[in-house]
Design a protein that fits this description.
It is a single chain. The chain has four helices and no strands. The protein is mainly alpha-helical and about 120 residues long. α3 packs antiparallel against α4. The longest helix is centred in the C-terminal third of the chain and has 34 residues. The radius of gyration is 17 Å and the shape is elongated.
Length: about 120
């Protein structure tokens, strides 16, 4: 699960940065505000890569997905990208867990330590 979720989060890091560049064109937003919000979201997306397998990591990932969708109020294309990343996040968590379970079953059958 860790690999799939981390791949999604790193991709989001890039999308958040590009969304910040688009948001800079909004005359109602200051550069400081845009880059503070984008910087925090970018930091969270990278930091979540390290805690994804810990309790609450997936929930924090969902919170980031909701924030990405909500950023569509400032950059309308983020409504679409946010939903796409939320679907990708779900798939990463769902199929990542299945892969981890299959690895654990395989390791148990072969008598090796848990590979997950």
């Amino acid at each position: 699960m860790r690999t799939l979720c981390a791949s999604t989060l790193i991709s989001e890091f890039l999308v958040i940065g590009f969304a910040g560049l688009v948001a800079m064109k909004d005359p109602d937003l200051t550069a400081g505000t845009v880059w503070t919000v984008c910087g925090i979201a970018m930091f969270l997306s990278v930091a979540l890569c390290g805690v994804i397998t810990r309790p609450g990591g997936v929930v924090l990932g969902w919170a980031l997905q909701i924030a990405l969708i909500a950023s569509g109020f400032f950059v309308p294309m983020m409504f679409i990208l946010g939903v796409l990343f939320a679907v990708l996040w779900w798939a990463s968590v769902h199929y990542g867990r299945k892969i981890d379970e299959a690895k654990a079953r395989s390791a148990a059958r072969s008598g090796q330590p848990d590979a997950a």
